[in-house]
Amino acid sequence: MKTTLTRNLLATAIASVILPVTAFAADPKPGGDIIVTYQNDVATLDPAIGYDWQNWSMIKSLFDGLMDYKPGTTELALDLAESYELSDDGKTYTFKLREGVKFHNGREMKASDVKYSLERTANPKTQSPGAGFFSPILGYDAVSAGDTTELEGVTVVDDYTVAIELSAPNATFLHVMGLNFASIVPKEAVEEHGADFGKNPVGTGAYELGEWALGRHLVFEKNEDYYKEGVPYIDTITFEVGQEPMVALQRLERGDVDIAGDGIPPAKFLQFKNNPAYEGLMVVGDQLHTGYLTLNVTIPPLDNLKVRQAINMAINKDRIVRIINGRATPANQPLPPAMPGYDEGYEGYPFDPEKAKALLREAGYEDGFTTELFVMNTDPQPRIAQAMQQDLSNIGITAEIRSLAQANVIEAGGVQDQAPMVWSGGMAWIADFPDPANFWGPILGCEGAVPGGWNWAWYCNEELDEMGDTADAMVAEHQRDDRAELWGSVFIEAMADAPWVPIFNEQRFTVRSERMAGDESLYVDPVHVPVNYDYIWVK
Q1: What are the pLDDT digits (tens) for 400-442?
Q2: CATH of the domain at 218
Q3: How buried is residue 6: exposed, middle or buried, by Cβ count under 10 Å (0-12/13-18/19+)?
């Protein structure tokens, strides 16, 4: 996933710095039942395993973690943790848990559940795609290697206190505690259902699973014992699956559906957007997303900096945005505008085909060259690739398009000498949490430039990696702005090496019926992707 935080280096509780999640919708009304549609069935509701945009917000509503985010924002907030303290060396977080919080099975949540849940996700037998996020915790390597099932750094102090020691100070750790992978689960329910826990989820969240008819629907019911007073507002949410997006939209227009989960089909987008009758039903929000063209810096002639700079200047990003009906804004750097560290003053590479031709001549490619452009074979991605192909041909570069299934494109990108250029459309990075570190390591850092990795540019700048490490060690509250600025400089310096052509920052569109209420940001929540069901309500 497919992502501003506050920290305090002093060994004092910071409940006054990071506030609990609270509702902010004006005059919300409790009660009501809504219908949400999706084309595909849900794969799992196990928080240790689920990792797609469809089940992410569902899991968020069934489970809680130590941390979360203020609804509709990227502002970190306390959740099951009532407060925390951070040691003077910046490595040990001691969380004080809320008392009286109950799982859906009626048992009170305790500190031992926190330890169990983190160790379960880290255990390779769970096969969690999020296990690696826990690597900062002391003892993670031993668990990952299968030498033990216990995380050395996680200690149960008492029933309502848990201490987590890291191997080194890490400014992203509180964000990790806000991921679904860090959700707290009851051991007895996991052991009862085994591999089927994802079909029989038990958490502490605002909703509990009432019914799941595979291939037909899921029903979420309001948790009457939820620890947050007053929420959720809605009594039941029925997720109907197997609904073709166009049919779902037509049903929403008739008032039979409340949220069209798959959004607006491309063929219907402009008609829906420009129809005054639907004004207010479509909610638009920024995503922690950047769509980019990777340039493999190890494959000639893309190993030549001037060639990569020329390609950056050859692509007409405005035209590409028009291809997707304006559902994005042109990008000039890897970080999306909503991310801390985004440099508003950076202008990037201009669209300048003549300058691009001059750079190719300087690089010794006056007659151009032939290369390959890999793209996912689902509309509109091939059309976007064709637009890039035309732009490149205008400066003498012949780009042969390789249109393949998503899995094949990802596989090719993970082989060092196979894919000269990859358009990330349909596979582009959406941050797991709202911190620039998550936009570096996997897709631009040296750690991602490995076989099977997601750094398809195979760009490895150890100096910039070290700058990132320095930034992530800045855990003090007073260092927050300096840390964001340092991370921003990492990305801008990377752009000087031109391993990417940042193309656009895609926006999210959610369609809701006239009966739905709540702040618009909740329907395009940047963290509870795509909808924060806990705080929306029926008029």
Answers
A1: 999 999 889 999 999 999 999 999 998 888 888 999 999 999 8
A2: 3.40.190.10
A3: middle
**3-class secondary-structure state, position 10:** coil
| Interacting residues of 332 by C-beta distance below 8 A, sequence separation 6+ | 346, 347, 348, 349, 502
CA 474 to each of CA 76, 299, 338, 372, 467: distance values in angstroms, whole numbers, following the listed order: 17, 36, 21, 41, 11
**Which of helix, strand or coil describes residue 465?**
helix
**Residue pLDDT, tens place only, 169-206:** 999 999 999 999 999 999 999 999 999 999 999 999 99
Q: What is the arithmetic mean of pLDDT over 35-40? A: 94
Distance between CA atoms of 158 and 97, rounded to whole angstroms?
10
**C-alpha span between 388 and 59 (Å, rounded):** 38
**Residue 342 sits in the same domain as residue 417:** yes
Do 446 and 389 sit in the same domain of this protein?
yes
Task: State the alpha helices, DSSP H only, in 63-126.
Answer: 111-122
* Distance between CA atoms of residues 509 and 281, nearest Å: 10
Same structural domain, 336 and 460: yes
Core vs surface per residue 23-55: b (16+ CB within 10 A) or e: bebeebeeebebbbbbeeebebbbbbbbbeebb
CATH number (domain holding residue 105): 3.90.76.10
Which of 453, 483, 444 is CA-nearest to residue 172?
Answer: 483
Q: Coil, helix or strand for 486?
A: helix
H or E segment to which residue 62 belongs: helix 53-62
Query: What does residue 255 show for φ and ψ, rounded to 5 degrees?
Result: 90, 10
User: What is the structure's pLDDT at 527?
Assistant: 86
Q: How far is residue 412's CA from residue 324's CA, in Å, rounded to a whole number?
A: 25
SS3 298: coil
Give yes or no: residues 173 and 318 share one domain: no
Decide if 471 is inside a domain.
Answer: yes
H or E element at residue 289: none
What angle, rounded to 10 degrees, do the helices at 305-314 and 381-393 form? 110
- Cross-strand partners of 508: 285
Q: Are residues 304 and 214 in the same domain?
A: no
Distance, in Å, from the CA atom of 60 to the CA atom of 531, rounded to the nearest integer, reads: 10
DSSP string, 308-359: HHHHHHH--HHHHHHHTTT-EEE-SSSS-TTSTT--TT-------HHHHHHH
Question: Quick check: is 477 in a domain?
Answer: yes
> Can you give 31-44 as a three-state secondary structure string?
CCEEEEECCCCCCC
